[in-house]
Amino acid sequence: MCGIVGIVGTANVNQALYDALIVLQHRGQDAAGIVTSKDNKLFLRKANGLVKDVFHTRHMQRLLGNYGIGHVRYPTAGSSSSAEAQPFYVNSPYGITLAHNGNLTNVEELAKSIYLSDLRHVNTSSDSEVLLNAFAHELAKSKKLRLAPDDIFDAVTQLYKRCVGGFAVVSMIIGHGIVAFRDPNGIRPLVYGSRETVQGIEYMVASESVALDVLGFTLIRDVAPGEAIYITEQGELFTKQCVAVKQFTPCIFEYVYLARPDSIIDGSSVYKSRLKMGEKLAEKILRERPDHDIDVVIPIPDTSRTSALELANSLGVKFREGFIKNRYIGRTFIMPGQAERKKSVRQKLNAIELEFKGKNVLLVDDSIVRGTTCKQIVQMARDCGAKKVYFCSAAPAVRYPNVYGIDMPSVHELIAHNRTTEEVAKLIGTDWLIYQDLEDLKEAVRFEGTNLHDFDCAVFDGHYVTGDVNEAYLHHIEEERNDKALGQKQAETEIIELHNN
Ligand SMILES: O=P(O)(O)OC[C@H]1O[C@H](OP(=O)(O)OP(=O)(O)O)[C@H](O)[C@@H]1O
Ligand SMILES: NC(=O)CC[C@H](N)C(=O)O
Ligand SMILES: [Mg+2]
């Protein structure tokens, strides 16, 4: 779940791209990049680090042009080396750059065919570089110096035949404009909007609507699954459904954890969904133990706060801020490496003893994935003198890997894999563990007036919507991407430093 943005403006867009990436920072903390274009040249700056650390005034001054794209990265393929920071670039045809949120499930076959049939070289192990080369190959087929919108849409249609997985993409074609498209299942989110200026209309495409809000753009709508949009460098907008939608199944984990609560994805407010998750959890608690003895509900900041608040309201129990979050530590789940994640939980959260001492506390988190957070938090609650420590998760148990853009490749790293709720409760040291039911989670996200019916819930139910994920594939990514393998990969790229450009 990286963050992507593309803007076609009426003046330089460097500052607007930077501001949008700051708003999307929660989607990726490892690397950031911006590329802009002016007078048929491109200007690129990308590196590992947070947005505020990657772009200095000297870089910003050189990112010239009225159109460009940006990316914040959370690696799900390859390594977290700076060589795989995005946007990626290929010089032929036209000069194309691309930023991708998601993960391709057929990257190995695709990379092979790009080399053997398309005679193209890919220099990193990033699936996004493969995707860019496939797109470039399809665009080259038109053999035109100047592409018409339909040439671009035809290329995207062909690309859909070659790429499988989750992908929301923004691409900049030098001398032309910006193209954006979303995978046929709509797994990863993508929206676009516009704003009026005295010089004319400006367009922006982004992973989440919150980026549009903060920059004063008005949301037009979500990019539909299988749809592409093209905004020329002069600000003309074209859209086309490039492939029929077989099943619209956006990733439900966006609503649970990934997205900001103030975003609206596919017509459903993330904030309202999280409130509803809290309400549903309260109903389950009352079903399981109508005569519960919970004294206080305490969220684990940051993401669970919305659900925890509504849970407490529905139960009629006090809501208290028992953990204080250090505002300078980022999201721990998307940090690379278990050692860093583990250390960061304690650095990030500290308890207020008086909220725990002598009480039966219900701790609420949005999800339990590896169990890194909850294990430490339960212990902290006990150290503060809690009488009983109950724990609930606004999402069901995470039991299966994700292959569409969330870095959960290894079942053995998932605390609930092959374990019952009671076994997990014992492992994390809680007196009572309550998981949300999957149907209740789906109900919390479906709102009237949206066409949301089904979702990619693979991490909860092991059903992979693209239909190509089998045991052999899961075994393969487990080997490739477990913490140990990633550490090794990182060490190798640091020595060799292979760059895309
Ligand atoms: O079981 P785990 O592997 O620990 O993963 C789940 C935890 O990680 C996330 O928090 P994170 O610190 O990333 O972000 P947040 O501040 O948005 O809650 C999530 O909100 C849970 O708290
Ligand atoms: N989280 C993502 O969307 C990752 C995008 C891409 N697969 C990468 O690893 O860079
Ligand atoms: Mg959290």
Automatic annotation (TrEMBL):
GO biological process: 'de novo' IMP biosynthetic process; purine nucleobase biosynthetic process
HAMAP family: PurF (MF_01931)
Cofactor(s) needed for function: Mg(2+)
Name assigned to this protein: Amidophosphoribosyltransferase
Listed NCBIfam families: purF (TIGR01134)
Gene Ontology molecular function: amidophosphoribosyltransferase activity; magnesium ion binding
Domain Glutamine amidotransferase type-2 span(s) in chain numbering: 2-234
Active site positions, chain numbering: C2 (nucleophile)
Pathway where this protein functions: Purine metabolism; IMP biosynthesis via de novo pathway; N(1)-(5-phospho-D-ribosyl)glycinamide from 5-phospho-alpha-D-ribose 1-diphosphate: step 1/2
Pfam families reported in the protein's UniProt record: GATase_6 (PF13522), Pribosyltran (PF00156)
Note describing how the cofactor binds: Binds 1 Mg(2+) ion per subunit.
Transmembrane stretches, start-end: none
Class of this enzyme: transferase
Family: In the C-terminal section; belongs to the purine/pyrimidine phosphoribosyltransferase family.
Biological role stated in the UniProt entry: Catalyzes the formation of phosphoribosylamine from phosphoribosylpyrophosphate (PRPP) and glutamine.
Keywords annotated in UniProt: Glutamine amidotransferase, Glycosyltransferase, Magnesium, Metal-binding, Purine biosynthesis, Transferase
Alphabetical list of SUPFAM superfamilies matching this protein: N-terminal nucleophile aminohydrolases (Ntn hydrolases), PRTase-like
Gene: purF
Reaction it catalyzes: 5-phospho-beta-D-ribosylamine + L-glutamate + diphosphate = 5-phospho-alpha-D-ribose 1-diphosphate + L-glutamine + H2O
Binding site for Mg(2+): T303, D365, D366
Entry EC no(s): 2.4.2.14
Lineage: superkingdom: Bacteria
